[in-house]
Amino acid sequence: MESMKFCQSCSMPIDDVALRGTEFDGAPSEEYCKYCYAHGMFIQPSMTLDEMKELVVKKMNEQKVPEDIIEAAVERLPDLKRWQRAIQ
Fold first, then answer.
1. Could you say which of 63, 71, 82, 88 would form a disulfide bridge with 9 (CB–CB 3.0 to 4.6 Å)?
2. Which helix (H) or strand (E) holds 10?
3. Cα–Cα distance measured from residue 82 to residue 63, given in angstroms and rounded to the nearest whole number
4. pTM for this prediction
């Protein structure tokens, strides 16, 4: 069984190609969701890790996601590719 793919910006599952962002050439991104990435660029390029954490909590609370899953998603954020680049 293939492992799940997660957006390397917000940690949303992106196994469904319809949820993936797009590269410059219009191809689906292998790393980012459509809410974070379009046409080969981040939709909110100046967003900070702390702002992303707040957004993830807000969106997941709106969807009534259990608190333990929200915590796991937020804890995973600093390890994602987008935020590793910001730390360097």
1. 82
2. none
3. 24
4. 0.87
